[in-house]
Specification:
Blueprint (H helix, E strand, L loop, with lengths): L5 H30 L4 H10 L2 H21 L1 H15 L14 H48 L3 H33 L4 E2 H15 L6 E5 L5 E2 L3 H18 L3 E6 L6 E8 L6 H4 L19 H11 L3 E6 L5 E8 L2
Helix pairs in contact: 1-2, 1-3, 5-6, 6-10, 7-8, 8-10
């Protein structure tokens, strides 16, 4: 069913109201003319109602009614603009002056936005408390794994260390989701992609120094995305670390600065690549392309879930370097 335009309805009502008043005003004059034909004033009024001057006056009234109706609907356009700003992350609440009929709706919307923001802040605080509470037990378990390995119980030590790492990754995964959800509710997320990529590049250079990988960044310096910096680091960090693990010698992080509302950041490597049949599977939680490789199978799943929370996506394909290309799409800031 086609939606009706409020603007069109108000303007049409104004026109019909003006025309109706003109018709109604002509009826008494006609009746007076019929019953009192000798009254000069009645004849003059009746003649006036049939003159071009009346048509001009009626036209002016109709134009005034249309302008007034259009002005009264300007508040609806202002409300729509403010809501677009909130949705785009440029504002946290609806600002502006509105008519008395619209202001209660604005107050209710602002109240709803504030309630959601408080709820998300409480959820993040609880998640942070939980993560902080788990740090000490996980650290103690790591020490126990080291002691077991030092005592010659290598299998037990390795098993404990593996499970501790999986628990730590699970904590990081859910904290990252909580942060991303908060960014979507409160708005205002903004990160420069080049800064995040450069910082991660320096860290990975040190981490993989023995392999002497050539890690380069070709992202434009002023390219920004609507993502919290911590979450951008999490996504790019997982993709770049995965590329470094499999690369033979080269990893390239790039992005094209186009007019598209979505920014595509690519991470390429010259490793063995990944079969097309496995590219979708490895994006699922707990799935790894090579079960012998270290890790919990959560890295790419974290990237996928975080990207979707920001209305983005992650796609795996073939790189021009011969290995794997990870294409991360995120909304432009």
């Amino acid at each position: 069913m086609k939606r009706r335009s409020l603007r069109g309805q108000v303007l049409l009502a104004s026109v019909l109201w003006t025309v109706g008043l003109l018709f109604i005003s002509s009826v008494p004059m006609t009746l007076l003319m019929e019953h009192f034909p000798r009254f000069n004033i009645v004849r003059h009024v009746h003649r006036f109602l049939q003159s071009p001057l009346l048509i001009l006056l009626a036209s002016l009234c109709m134009v005034a009614a249309l302008m007034l109706g259009r002005r009264s609907l300007a508040s609806v356009d202002a409300l729509r603009g403010s809501m677009s700003g909130v949705h785009a992350g440029h504002a946290r609440r609806i600002e502006g002056e509105f008519p008395s009929e619209v202001q209660p709706l604005v107050d209710d919307l602002n109240g709803l936005l504030e309630h959601r923001e408080r709820a998300v802040r409480r959820a993040i605080a609880k998640a942070g408390d939980l993560a902080h509470g788990l740090k000490t037990p996980l650290a103690l378990l790591t020490q126990e794994a080291d002691r077991a390995a030092a005592a010659g119980q290598l299998a037990i030590g390795a098993s404990i260390a593996q499970h501790v790492e999986r628990m730590r990754r699970q904590v990081d995964y859910h904290l990252a989701q909580a942060r991303a959800a908060a960014s979507g509710v409160s708005g205002g997320a903004h990160s420069v992609a080049r800064d995040a990529a450069d910082g991660l590049c320096r860290a990975l250079d040190r981490l993989y120094a023995e392999r002497r990988l050539a890690i380069s960044v070709t992202v434009p310096p002023d390219l920004s995305v609507k993502v919290q910096r911590e979450d951008l680091d999490e996504m790019l960090g997982n993709l770049m670390d995965n590329a470094c693990k499999w690369a033979a010698s080269t990893v390239v992080v790039g992005a094209a600065d186009t007019e598209s509302p979505m920014v595509t950041i690519t991470v390429d490597d010259d490793g063995p690549g990944l079969a097309a049949a496995l590219r979708d599977a490895v994006l699922q939680r707990g799935v790894r392309a090579d079960e012998a490789a270290p890790g919990s199978g959560l890295g790419l799943a974290i990237v996928r879930d975080l990207a979707e929370l920001y209305l983005g996506s992650i796609v795996l394909g073939e790189s021009h370097l011969g290995g794997l290309r990870a294409s991360l799409q995120l909304p432009r800031a």
